[in-house]
Amino acid sequence: MKRSCSLAFFVPAALAICLLTAASAQQPGSGASAKAAHLAKNPVQEIDLPQYPVEMPPGPNLSAFQQHCLLCHSARYVTMQPRFSRAVWEKEVKKMVDVYGAPINATEQQQIVEYLVAIKGPAESK
Amino acid sequence: MSDPGFPDRRRFATLLAALGAYAAAGRFPGGRDLLSAFTSSAWAAEAPSAPELVRYPQKTDLILLTDRPPQLETPLRYFQTDLTPNDAFFVRWHLSGIPTSVDTRTFRLEVSGHVKKPLTLSPTDLRQKFEAVSLVALCQCAGNARSLFEPRVPGGQWGNGAMSNARWKGARLKDVLDAAGVLPGTVQVGLRGLDTAPLPQMPRFEKSLPIDHARDGEVIIAYEMNGAPLPMLNGFPLRLVVPGWYGTYWVKSLSSISVLDQPLKTFWMDTAYRIPDNAGAEETPQQLAKVTVPITRMSVRSIFVKPARQEQLRSGARYTLEGVANDGGSGIHKVEVSTDDGKTWGDAILGDDLGKYSWRRWRAPWTPPSPGNYRLQVRATSNDGQQQVTSQWNRSGYQRDVIERLDVVVI
Description:
heterodimer, A: mainly alpha, Cytochrome Bc1 Complex, Chain D, domain 2, 2 domains, 6 helices, B: alpha+beta, Sulfite Oxidase, Chain A, domain 2, Immunoglobulin-like, 3 domains, five-stranded mixed β-sheet, 25 strands
């Protein structure tokens, strides 16, 4: 009797705790609304941007890639890409120069293409 | 989702490791969330295309595409509510000079150019001098689901999470333009935010809207998102909301509106964000479209949110398939689901209607009859009769509206 009694209490209580935990985990909840209230009152917003450097695979002209490409964007612009043909990589590098004005001369562009093809070129070129 | 091309063997190994870790932690996550939640930098070194979760200021854990400038994708589990929480709202910046500090006491929005009276407005001016309007609208990156295009195309390798749905509050762009007094001969407005280019010769991010669109009364300058100020990474303190149009027009940290009597000449309209000049944004790698136009209105699309990738269903057990559908502003007429790879279709139940610019959640009960592999499909039809297509490709991976497929294992 005593056992069933305590179970009758314990099971729903445990269930309620589980549900409550799940509910608070589901949404940003109280923390977020407190944050929002703070934001609403504070006229200044300021954040520090974290960086998530990624180690680039070794390959020919890695230093040219690092020197010229990482000035404007993180290496993840490359690491997130699938494999592409040399023609695609040549076009991408040319776009950085022609459209975005990256100061990279023709020799350096070729070096960078070599690196990109080595690490993200078509599978058969590996 | 954002990892096609990720070798199955490796995915399986990751999954096994993740299962082990979660079992040890006593948690029971499902499908893709499990995969993405566990993927750490240690795994990234071995499997660079596996999703990696990171937490930026004012944001929750999001899928990292790039960190400088930040491009962060929303995990699909956040699409199980009508409104995407602000801290889960996806992030996409173009140039590395992004605003990290704004003082609303000194921040000003300039309205200049072909107007009677140029304006300099503080966020408080926008709140106090103009009528406040509010609407729910989906913001979706033009390149959402780019990673699903075959053959693959270069660019941000988004899965389906480069979109988010929010309730926006702000002032009508029309009211602000009227206060400045647009002069006859105006053709466009140019829109710019606080973000800057890392090199002086690099074109700053700038977009334009035709003047009639800018004055249609629906485009708003938002100062609130889901009842709170915008997170910095989503455009604090002001963001343009262009309902029904792709996110590229939703200029963040909007600081300059220039009223133009000549079309804006900029890389961001003339070269980037362009699609083949045909209804389906279609071309082939062998035959690229000769004429391209700026991408504008969102096409009709629907995706699965549940089951998540890798989630296993049980034979004979009732399950509720779930997802979201959207179009560019006519609203969703119906969503159909197939559990036999498109041979037969049934109507899904539509969720609450939050307005024609909101996405529409849907659900469809399904009891898998027997163990095995199933290919599910989902397709939406908009109120103006737009339907999804069975195949599509363009060189930039924009405006994807291919019928979504999902492979599910039933045990």
